[in-house]
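I hope you will forgive my troubling you with a question about protein structure. The full record is reproduced below for your convenience:

——
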Amino acid sequence: MSGKPVLLVEDSDDDALLLKRTLNKVGLANPVYHVNDVDQALCYLSGEGPFADRNQHPLPSVIFLDLRLPVRGGYELLEWIGTRPEFRTIFIVVLAGTGNIEDIAKANRMGANTFLTKPCKPVTLKIS
């Protein structure tokens, strides 16, 4: 393992793959663990269920968190993390499909460190 892991909380497998490829392209050597929803993220962070072995699933240094998740949204996870002092050092990057200023402000108030807008579709650059 090349460093503390990154936890990606994202329900879209396509968006997760795109982010993983981007992190790989910029040279991030840290392992990336992907969970699909808030319940799985809670299990991971709590070290419960399939994530009970902290050697296999250490606490992340960074969380990429999609705000719009099925059943329970990203705000619920932000609120839960905010009540636990042991997670205060985790850097949280909120991902959303739009750059809605209210979403950004609310996520920041709840402990997010930064906010990224997901691209609507992969962008192809053409150099003439």
